[in-house]
Amino acid sequence: MASAMAKRLDGKTIVVTGASSGIGRSTAKEFARTSPKNLKLIVTARRLDSLNELAQEIKQEVGEGVKVLPVKLDVSSPEEIKNFVPSLPAEFQEIDVLVNNAGLVRGVAKAPEIEQEDINVMFSTNVNGLIGMTQAVLPIFKKRSDGGRGDIINIGSIAGREPYPGGSIYCATKAAVKSFTEALRKELIATRIRIIEVDPGQVETEFSVVRFYGDKAKADAVYSGCEPLTPDDIAEVVVFAAGRRENVVIADTLIFPSHQASPTAMHKK
Ligand SMILES: NC(=O)c1ccc[n+]([C@@H]2O[C@H](COP(=O)([O-])OP(=O)(O)OC[C@H]3O[C@@H](n4cnc5c(N)ncnc54)[C@H](OP(=O)(O)O)[C@@H]3O)[C@@H](O)[C@H]2O)c1
């Protein structure tokens, strides 16, 4: 017998950005596991080979009930975003859920030494990309009854609530995500469109490797003596939020591992 959550997700079309790694990858898998009989998953990122591997893994784990469409998409490119929905096969165009997960941090520099390139990449991906994807998908939602229906799930961060030294730009991008998310929820108050934000604390993914420009030893040091969250921990929250009854909006969540109470309040063994 299917769970209530599996029944609610049955038949949905779900887009996950940044699905080639970490939280996005886990989120795609968790949706597939939760509703394995009839689901369409559009998994996007810049690394198409990783998306193809993910599609294979999902097929092996849950079978043919979940149709996975890997799409190469750089969310920092307004041009690619513009072409995204129109170039989807017709059977994938009726999107029900958008998980705006693609994002990154670059460096730990403090002003005035922050590289312009790093500032541009973080804003164009974390902020402009998330806004662009939202604007691309909302017209699909708004055509539906009751003023529109569908879910936008934005991955924010504790960094958007509590900025820390060496993370000023990343924190500013995640604060922008929070502002955009909250304004959007108010703009869509007369619809059935749910605007959901999930804010993780420390999660072990490729996030720190990207932050340190590929230096794995520096990335590993961030997690030494700690037990960070896994990407599956966040994926479960995302799928839970999408799987609620239509009138229930998990507007906001903040998820820490037990050793963390803020970006800088960390207990190291
Ligand atoms: N890990 C943490 O501690 C933590 C905490 C709070 C919030 N978050 C947030 O969680 C989200 C996922 O990060 P993660 O921890 O899972 O890191 P990750 O393992 O590095 O994954 C990041 C994903 O974003 C994608 N991405 C980056 N730039 C992109 C672009 N221009 N266009 C399309 N996709 C892009 C990457 O794919 P490609 O490289 O293939 O494009 C990758 O799939 C981010 O928004 C991050 O800010 C993470």
Automatic annotation (TrEMBL):
Protein name as it appears in the record: Oxidoreductase
InterPro entries xrefs: NAD(P)-bd_dom_sf (IPR036291), Sc_DH/Rdtase_CS (IPR020904), SDR_fam (IPR002347)
Any GO molecular function: oxidoreductase activity, acting on the CH-OH group of donors, NAD or NADP as acceptor
Stored Gene3D superfamilies: NAD(P)-binding Rossmann-like Domain
BP GO annotations: secondary metabolite biosynthetic process
Superkingdom, taxonomy of origin: Eukaryota
Keyword annotations from UniProtKB, A to Z: NADP, Oxidoreductase
Similarity-based family: Belongs to the short-chain dehydrogenases/reductases (SDR) family.
Residue intervals passing through the bilayer: none
Pfam families reported in the protein's UniProt record: adh_short (PF00106)
